[in-house]
Amino acid sequence: MVSEELTTLEQLQTNLLESYQEEFPNDEPTICAFAPGRVNLIGEHVDYVDGFVFPMAIPLGTMIIGKALDDSITNTCYIRTLSKDVGEPKSIEIDLTKEISPLKSPKWANYVVGVLALFLERMKPTKKQPFRILIATTVPIGGGLSSSASIEVAMCTFLELLYKKSLTNGQQLSKVDKALLCCKAEQVYANVPCGIMDQYTACMAEANHALLIDCRDNTSKSIPMTNKEVCVLVTNSNVKHELVAGTYAERVRHCQEAADILGHKKLREVTSIKELENVRDKMSPVIYKRAHHAITEIKRTEAGAKALSNNDYTEFGRLMYESHESLRDDFEVSCEELDQLVSLARSVDGVYGSRMTGGGFGGCTVTLVAKSSVDKCIETIKKGYKATASFYQFVPSDGARAIDLKKHQ
Ligand code: GAF
């Protein structure tokens, strides 16, 4: 086996049900919600400047099973994760009679608690419903495949199902509003000034399609990805460098500084590189480079979606390499390991393109490669890479959904 075997939804649900039954022997969950992680094909670090991004949902994700508790007995929500890699404690309790504030730790809980707090604030149910849930994710934590958004969106999906009967139609969330709510949870409760890409993908993605998202008006277009001769190979560098959170916020600030100098609300409004060149002497070299990345990346993403629609993989691949170079040199969010993975992939015949994906400083690369060259590509990376990588072959998946519990019991 060269690439990782993917845990199926059935396996994931079986694991969760087994743990549930061990903990609550005479009890059965009634709700099961799932939301996927994502891999971004192109359009990196431009969602928060209102740009275009082009991700797809992956068949890995977060599943939550649980049930409503009797509110005449308790006002508490019992939340527990089965993930080993997320830090301690693994269980938290939330008292619904009190205000729900961000927790100092554990970090994973803020994704859940943030969504719960904002859901209640937004939907204003007449009665707050206590519940018990178990959470498990198959998305590698900190791998740049958006484990956090998949937890948030799975949680929001669970709450929609929990409150299904008690909320009127007028109170239902649209998918875009759901993405916005989950994004706000990450910004406010996890304190990351992220854009909308990850939560939007987890809510809106369609199987066998990538999603071209316009982050200015939160609209999207699904682009078919059905060619069986071409494969999306994701390589996890298995490194995660420190300073990520602070550096992300710094990049967001740099882009806003550039937009302010250019007299725009966001860098998306810049129409050409010439416009940037005209004010180059008004900005520091660092701010210029950040803006240069964002402006060129937005153009590459539009061109990339067009190329993929026309099955022009060579052109798409060229844009992927350019994107990586821009992230490495202008935006400075790559690292030695990611650069090495990209150049090893590039050396293989049949590889169209490769780039870092996600926030950067570790995590994964995404490579577009002819199916017939996948094994060669993996072999070449394994041989040349300074650390140990893991590999995933992904087909685009559906967005968040309820999963039938009975089917797999
Ligand atoms: C992280 C963020 F959460 C996204 O909003 C996006 O900015 C991405 O980094 C970089 O493209 O995943």
From TrEMBL:
Pfam families: GalKase_gal_bdg (PF10509), GHMP_kinases_C (PF08544), GHMP_kinases_N (PF00288)
Domain (Galactokinase N-terminal): residue spans on this chain: 18-66
Superkingdom classification of source: Eukaryota
Gene3D superfamilies noted in UniProt: 3.30.230.10, GHMP kinase, C-terminal domain
One term under GO cellular component: cytosol
GO terms of biological process kind: galactose metabolic process
GO molecular function: ATP binding; galactokinase activity; metal ion binding
Acyltransferase recorded as keyword: no
Family matches, as NCBIfam families: gal_kin
Protein name: Galactokinase
Species annotation: Adineta steineri
